Amino acid sequence: MNGETDIKRPLAHDRLDLREETLGRTIWSLALPTVVETLLVTMVFFSDTLIVGWLRDEKALAATMLAGLIMFFLDAPFFALSAAANSLVARSWGQRDFDSARRFAGHSIYMAFCAAAGFIIIAWPLSRGLVTVLGASEAVIPLGTRYLRILLFSGALGMPMFVSNAIIRGTGDTKTPMINTAIMNVTNVVVSIVLAFGMGVVEPMGLIGVAWGTVIARTLGGALSLRALFSSKKNLQMRFANVITLSKTISSRIVRLSTPAVLERSVQSFGSLVFIRIVAILGTTTLAAHNIAIHVESLAYMPLVGVGSAIAAIVGQALGAGRSHIAELAVKRMLLWSVIFMVGLAVLFVVFGPVVAKVFGATPDVVKLAGMALQIASLELPCLAVFLVLAASLRGAGDTRSPFYVTLVCSVLFRLGGVYLFAITFGWGLAGVWLATALDWGMRGIGLWICFRKGVWKLIHEQEEDKYA
Fold first, then answer.
1. Which residue of 192, 335, 368, 414 lies most exposed, with the fewest beta carbons within 10 A?
2. How far from each other are the two terminal CA atoms of the chain, in whole angstroms?
3. Nearest to 209 by CA among 75, 47, 66, 362
4. How many angstroms separate the CA atoms of 432 and 447, rounded?
5. What pLDDT is attached to residue 403?
6. Which residues are CB-neighbours of 325 under 8 A, at least 6 positions away?
7. Pseudo-torsion of CA 436, 437, 442, 444, nearest 10°?
8. Which residues pair with residue 199 across a beta bridge?
9. Per-position b or e across 262-283, b if 16+ CB within 10 A of its CB
10. 341 φ/ψ angles, rounded to the nearest 5 degrees
11. Which secondary structure element, helix H or strand E, spans residue 413, and what is its range?
12. DSSP string, 328-364
């Protein structure tokens, strides 16, 4: 059923402008807000690391790295739900079937809250064991455990926020998530600094203050995102009935689409846990340096995650409107622009990597290792561009299997195998770790390019429509 007649108030717009002559403008009108949004999301964790670095405590840096990895693992279902919700909402929007878009959104939000509650309940008693399994030293385990348990509180609204923002972007509105994320980021920086170092009547809380600052900020961000879904002034205009009125057909369609994405993120997360366990063998100083390098690098590639979010919405709406050639053209254009951008950043990493590492104010040994890691990271930046743009494009089309298969093979063969070979067997230490990751991203990019060129992703929407008609 087409949902156009179900709209009670006029929308900001029906769907994206998908004409070839205006495609560049459409791409950038969506991409720029998502780039800013993802940079702001990164800044939440970047600023936390920066604040912790100025505490001059390697144990605190190591604790944030380990707890952050565990939260990354717990976020896997929400990454998958986000990909599924974005694709389904965008394709429905391209067909102008607005009622179906709201139903897909409502089911996705329901699933997100159920998953968030379950994960928090399960992870709380296991926190110490998880930190220990990652190879934390005896001095880091208590601090990492406490930090992780506090961060878990942020999941109540912070985890579903990933899904709600993806839904909003699926309608072509990328400005609202950007504004909400900006508010969240400012809140995080201000509150974390005040709680960590103290101000006025507030006593210094150190690392624990940073954790509570993150909880407050993510909770606020989640609340703002959910409010936008139900606002009469926004595109979707959801109703509470869309969340509580469940359909087996819609649920199964979301599960079918999100399962490969869950597996992909789980493989990636599990690989990261094993990966960091290998890095931890190299010592606390190396682990702290790796933590700094990871966060600096994320500032480089996170804009590409934002670009991917925009391309996913364009691909989804274009396929829903029956214009697969526009989807392919948009992907190729953004792929070219992204690779050129990342090559430029790679040059900057080589020249200024050691200088940037000093900003964190860590010990000289940590700064030296982190600077070296950033210089090696320049090798993987163009490869990251290829992988991130193509992976998001395929997911936007409903192809969540190809990124999963490529991630699985490359994680096992090149990331884990390469890190152990280069860092441990050859004794290259942190340099071996980053050389192996560069090899991993290069092979992932090649794998997804092959999948994209085959063009199977262009047929998925019509096949799903026939199956669930």
1. 368
2. 10
3. 47
4. 23
5. 94
6. none
7. 120
8. 202
9. bbbbbbbbebbbbbbebbbebb
10. -60, -45
11. none
12. HHHHHHHHHHHHHHHHHHHHHHHHHHHHHHGGG---H
Among 186, 30, 237, 409, residue whose Cα is nearest residue 401:
409
For the stretch 351-394, pLDDT in tens is 888 888 777 766 778 888 888 888 898 999 999 999 999 999 99
Which pair of tokens denotes residue 333?
């254009």
What is the pLDDT averaged over residues 323-333?
A: 93
pLDDT in tens, 60-105: 878 887 887 788 778 778 888 998 999 999 999 988 888 889 999 9
Closest CA to 109 of 215, 27, 201, 230: 230
Residue type at position 297: E
| Tokens 């998908």, residue located | 18
Q: How many CB atoms lie within 10 A of CB 425?
A: 10
- SS3 of the chain: helix, strand, coil, percent, to 5: 85, 0, 15
| CA-based nearest residue to 418, from 431, 437, 401 | 437
Domain boundary assignment for the chain: 33-462
Assigned token pair, 22: 């205006």
Alpha carbon distances (Å) from 92 to 2, 6, 111, 320, 328 = 9, 14, 19, 6, 19
The answer to whether 359 and 406 are in contact (CB under 8 A) is: no
Largest CA distance in the chain: 66
Structure tokens at 113: 């809250």
Three-state secondary-structure class, residue 233: coil
Answer whether 0.90 is exceeded by the pTM: no
Structure tokens at 193: 């600094």
In this structure, are residues 335 and 304 in contact, taking their beta carbons and an 8 Å threshold? Answer: no
Type of residue numbered 468: Y
What is the DSSP annotation of 225-277?
HHHHHH-TTSSS---THHHHS--HHHHHHHHHHHHHHHHHHHHHHHHHHHHHH
> pLDDT-derived band of residue 314, with 50, 70 and 90 as boundaries?
very high
